[in-house]
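Q: what sequence does this backbone want?
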């Protein structure tokens, strides 16, 4: 039961960050950029070879509008080698589980 409650809280917090970014983009306060690591030639592409839109990446989840733009491949690569700042310790574990799930789903 505690895991479910933690997931609900995580969703609320992630939703808040994602919602803040989406609203800022819609309002013109934030502009979606290109992948910061695009120069290495390893950006995510769709079946047509077009580069996928960059994700809003948060180095510090306490700052919802302080984002860097990374394509899905580079976003996953960043999380493989870095740990973002979290509001609480349990969020780190939830993110690790989510990342593993996302990787399994992409196979």
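A:
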């Amino acid at each position: 039961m505690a895991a479910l409650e933690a997931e609900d809280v995580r969703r609320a917090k992630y939703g808040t960050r994602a919602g803040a970014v989406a609203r800022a983009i819609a309002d013109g306060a934030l502009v979606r950029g290109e992948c910061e690591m695009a120069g290495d030639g390893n950006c995510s592409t769709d079946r047509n070879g077009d580069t996928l839109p960059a994700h809003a990446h948060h180095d510090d989840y306490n700052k919802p509008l302080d984002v860097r733009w990374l394509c899905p491949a580079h976003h996953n690569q960043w999380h493989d080698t870095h740990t973002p700042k979290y509001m609480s310790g349990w969020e780190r574990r939830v993110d690790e589980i989510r990342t593993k799930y996302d990787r399994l789903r992409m196979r």
